[in-house]
Specification:
Length: 146
């Protein structure tokens, strides 16, 4: 018996779809940049900023969990004077580590290009980390706000 490893869809043969009109494989390979979705690219930018900050401040970032959600919750918490629409810091409680959540769609709506998106992600992460630890954002990242 011969065992073959599965091939990715773009390496397989050309088959027709159910009605015989078009190919069944993707129009472009999954390794090409176009295959990435906007949410996937956003996650990559957040991960690269966390990696950069983690190299500078490993003791600050290690106990904190980071997450990305599409939109913020619709109801603000009772102690919030003004709700933060781009990100939120959740303090540690009952064995749950502190969390920082970035909201993807409000951040993407404020930007026009990838560079501007990268700067807003950087500034939001730095301001949330500074808020969590009670520091100024300039202490965490001297380039904050530039």
């Amino acid at each position: 018996m011969r065992i073959t490893s599965p091939k990715p869809p773009w390496m397989g043969g050309v088959y027709r779809n159910r009605h015989g009109r078009g190919p069944r494989r993707p129009m472009f390979g999954t390794r090409l940049p176009r295959y990435r979705t906007r949410s996937g690219m956003f996650d990559d930018l957040v991960a690269s900023q966390l990696k950069r900050l983690g190299q500078a401040w490993p003791e600050l970032l290690k106990p904190v969990q980071f997450a990305v959600e599409d939109v913020p919750p619709s109801d603000p918490l009772p102690w919030e004077d003004e709700p933060r629409l781009l990100s939120k810091v959740f303090p540690a409680e009952h064995g749950i580590p502190p969390r920082i959540v970035l909201y993807r769609l409000p951040i993407q709506m404020q930007t026009r290009d990838r560079t501007e998106l990268q700067f807003i992600i950087r500034d939001e992460l730095v301001s949330c980390i500074a808020e969590h630890y009670g520091r100024r954002p300039e202490e965490i990242d001297p380039d904050w706000g530039l």
